[in-house]
Design brief:
The complex is a heterotrimer. By secondary structure, chain A is of the alpha/beta class. Helices cover 34% and strands 23% of the residues of chain A. Chain B has two domains: 42 residues, no CATH class; 197 residues, MetI-like fold, CATH 1.10.3720.10. In chain B, helix 7 packs across helix 8. The chains are: A alpha/beta, B mainly alpha, C mainly alpha. At the B-C interface, helix 3, helix 4, helix 5, helix 6 and helix 7 of B face helix 1, helix 2, helix 3, helix 5 and helix 6 of C. Chain C: It comes from Saliterribacillus persicus.
Amino acid sequence: MEPILKIENLDKVYPDGTVALSNINFNVYPGEFVVVIGPSGAGKSTLLRCMNRLVEPTNGNVIFKDKKINKANSKQVKQIRREIGMVFQNFNLIDRLTVLNNVLHGRLGYTNTIKGSLGIFSKKDITEAEEILARVGLSKQKYKRADELSGGQMQRVGISRALSQRPRLILADEPIASLDPASSKNIMDHIYNICTEDKITAIVNLHQVEVAIKYATRIIGIQNGEVIFDGQPSQLTDKVIDEIYHDRRPPLVHAQ
Amino acid sequence: MSELEKSSDNIYSLNRNEDNNEMIVKPKKDFFIKGVLIFGCLFFLFSLYELNIDYSNLLEGTVAFFIMLGDMFPPNISEWAYVLPAAIESLQVAILGTVIAVVISLVLAFLAAENLAPNKWVARIVKSFATLMRVIPTIIWALIFIVAVGLGPLPGVLAIAVHSLGMLIKVFAQSVEEMDGGKIEALKASGAGSVQIIAQGVIPTVLTALMAWTILRLEIDIGESTILGLVGAGGIGWELMRAMRSYDFNTALFITMVIFVMIFSVEMLSNRLKLKV
Amino acid sequence: MHNKGKRVMELEEIRDIRQRKRVQTILITLLVVGLTIWSALGTDFSVYEVFSGLGLISNFVFIDLLPPDVSTSGSLLGAILETLYMGFVGMVVGAMIALVLSFLAAGTTTPHPIIQVVVRAFTSIIRNIPGLIWALILVASYGIGVTVGTLSLILGSVGFLTRVFADTLEEIDTGKIEALNATGSSYLQVLAQGVFPQFIPGFVAWSLYNLELNIRASTIIGMVGGGGIGFAIQKGIKLFQYKEVSMAIILVLVLILSTEFLTSKIRERII
């Protein structure tokens, strides 16, 4: 099977000299549910953001469906980004807009600039956004303002926004780090079930090793910007975990 | 892990129940904002119509303005011996006016603050006087004082002092009123008199706010003092008026540049101070 | 032993800081007092003159100014409305121009850093020259009238609003902008759908505040030939018609207070 995403010799050095990533290599195949684990500051976020070029890689290639993202011009980058959905730790919804409008933001890349700017979307897009909201159980909230929702609900809107892009790949950056345990499970279930049902490939950054083992089909452990583990969850021994976290096992769920 | 397991297992069945409920109605948009916007647009058009601006004059004037801008260069700095002392006088008028206003307002603000005033009526009377002083622009105060005490920097100082006093009483009193009531109560409970309460409880608490307002007011007053000369209350504004009246645009540009430097450096300085406070 | 030594050190440090603070306070006080005395000398300020002037001032206020001549209110009404129109038009046009400029001047939204510096410098020049002085300069090109008043109010609004709008834009949550970028939205779409909704409360609040500033400024802009009530006040004083002047001042009072009242009500409702 052809990989959907290829990472080749990826380096990232920030202008202040911090080496965030060095020589990362791996392929992701369609249908995989990859979880990236590692301590804070290991470079997980940077790695994810290099994949859709929210962060500019210093060296190496990121190839999505045979297209080199790092070589694409700004128009091509936008076209590639449309096919990659992203879910954020802080949800990053636009507070003053309605839930539905936030979901429709996933269609902006497919909408003409002026219409999109004015918030005019096609009937089809709206129906589809409503269907997605029904799927994550937020039909009743669709006309509410985004800032009226609870954290778990906000993240479901964040997922819906990514889904409305009809993505081939979903990147989730610490999607449950700002949530309570019950919402965390709910959100992880949603991401996992939707990706499996819709055959969407997923790359998820997580802090919690236990959660990673529960959902992942493959785990990548990174530390100090380098991949030090890449394999099945069953291969992730305590020794490896200790190595990844330097004996600093993170708590199951971060206290808020 | 166990914590995660506890919550409901099948989220999808739960959601279906949610969806079975009554139809969701699209909430009505808030008509207030739309109303204000529509009224604003209409009032804007009406204002434009009523102002009856002569658009051909606007065009000619703009051309004339740019020609004048060209004429202004290079600035004529030969008059510096008159201009710089006038600039310093403006600065002095602003400083003195602000200091007088701060000193007096420190006393009156406590009478105007409802949580400290001897009674409500005192607070109200002081506040309405403050409003009167604040609402009448500095330059109108200057005109009034010029009629009373003659031309020169004195009416300028008084005008700035009176207008600033109005604003400072208002904001100082607000700072005092926002103070945590418990602190005053604690001092009262210890048997402190009202002057002691102010000196030991109120002033230390609101000091930072008072300093910030004072700096802001000085910044505004330096701007105001540069224009007071336009009506004859001393300072650099008078020099600019004279230069413009005699069509000496090169000198006018120099004076404008001096005014810009004055206000700009005060803005920079107060930004610095604000960071420190 | 070791601990004790450390504690003594700490105590000494605290004493040191206290002393430095006290010295600082004394220096600042001396500086303020010195500046005040310097200013008083420079402006020939004498308390004696103020108190002897007090009689003159009260005479002037109670005999010449008061009571206001209500019969002139009809003719002054036109002037005060003109003041209101100038202030409002100045705010609307100024806010529109500032809206565009602020997107260029804010670090988060500017298309290019050089554009940012140029726009910031340009608006800083406009802002740091008082409106009345703009009016005085503009009168030479446009002649006496409301055009000058309106234009200088527009300039003042652009200078002020561009700065505060740009500051508001720079405080916007960049994560949300990132989220929209990640969906493949274009620059304009990100501005309209991501930045603008976050910007609206600040936009409304600052524009309303600017309206208050404009109304204040437009009451005096007439003194140098910008039309409105300021012209009437200036004229009244030159012709010694003080009772008309006091009527005009009362109208100014009413206009400013009602603007403040209205804007605060609108602000409460919208934000």
